[in-house]
Request: fold
Amino acid sequence: MQESKTPVSVDFEDDIATVHIENYLNKPAGEQIEKVCLQCLNDGYKTLILDFARTELVNSIGISFLLGVIDACEKKGADIIFSHVHDDVLSLFQILGITRKVKIDFASLQ
Amino acid sequence: MNKNPYKFVHTFDALAGIAEEIANKQNFNEMLRMSLHLLLGSLAIMRGGIARYLSHERELQFVAVRNLGDDFPLTMSIAPEDERDLIDAGLKSIEASQAKILSFFQQHYQILQKKQIELLIPLVIGGEFVGIILLGEKASGEPYDSSDLTVICAIARHIGVGIQQRNIMMELKRRIEENQRLYKNLQITYKDTIKAFAAAIDSKDKYTEGHSVRVGKYTEIIVEELGWDEQKREGAAVAGYLHDVGKLVVDRSIINAPYRINAKESAELSKHPSVGYEILLPIHHPFVDVPLAAKYHHERLDGKGYPEGLSGNQIPYIAKIVNLADSFDAMTTDRPYKKRRPFEEVIEDLRRNAGKQFAPEIVVAFSRAMLKEFSMQTDEKRFTRLLGKAYIEPSIVIPALKSLLNELGSHRS
Reply:
């Protein structure tokens, strides 16, 4: 089942919610991602997959919203996985240390 | 070293973003909210808050918080000694372990420790304490290094300037509102003083009590019909209220004479316009022509008036208006030596003297205002209240006014 909310769309399967993120993770996208992810956690989903397949750029505000999602997952005891992360974006996540807080689906890397 | 360019670009982007937020954002709270996002995101800091300092309350008020939970206190009191210590420290990062000497930090130590607050940055701009930033742990789990602290303080400085700018704007707004309030009070005092003056003038003239007030009101009606703005209308009304102030120095026996006065008494009475002018001239009236209305309200368009025999455009416009209002009131009130004239005769007098004593366009404006009221085109009852309902017979007066307007109607303001 797919719900489409530009710039974010969500797929659900069992207790896994996959959030597809659009091209530029900035303030509008970040707000939407946080809102959707918090809703998924409140609805009882135990695993959040953030799909970065279409994301080429993440700015500081986007990072901050991602940290909000990570913090919420920690509090709820939920797993959070980043998938299909572009090399440059992954480098940024690694430099900032975010990769220590999340699981990276290396099999899906681009 | 390969990683450094990415980090450099990323933090530089955050700095640029902060500068844009401070410069462009209209909404203060939103500006701080986005600034906090930029700060946390620049170094992947898990949680934090920005507070502004309310100096009168001696209180920190958190305007933006991220991931601090619902139990985080949004206000914290600051002791005077804390404020002094923070100002002395200047804008630099303070580790939580060192911040313990501050009493507000001690007071909230448990919650700050629970929230893993690691850094405190007092926002000191130009020697003024304007707020504080609290920062939690980095996502990497690593301690803050010197380059991190440099970036944090650079961003914090921008945020501090943004808060200080807002404080200045709010103080400016407060002072403007205070000045507006004081000005309004001054206006009220001025108006009350004018009315008291008018009452004093009229109290000397037993038979025409209320004359100055009525002339003020007729004057206001005329200038409203002429389309004057509110401020000028108020000024014109004052000119009407005070037009006879010079009578204060005229002997009461002359003013209240129950007969037509002689030449000598008339000469005495004729001084009142010039005397009124001298009385009113030193006062700083908002409407500067008030003294002129007093001096020239007995001049006539045809030059047969007094005190100077001015004619036409030599006569100040406000004086022409007050002249009409004054004459109209004289004709429509009882005098010591004669009763007031029937209203339709008064209208005829206005028509006959338009262009001789009165400016035609002013007669037109006044007549138009009367017609609007008597034919119930407006809910106003100003003439009815001033003249008395019994005095006005609409079936006679309305046709007379229409006839006057038809004849003089080409004279528009």
Summary: Chain B touches chain A at residues 3, 6-7, 10-11, 13-14, 17, 34, 36-38, 40-47, 66-67, 138-142 (CB under 8 Å). Chain B has a mean pLDDT of 90. The first strand of chain B starts at residue 48 and ends at 54.
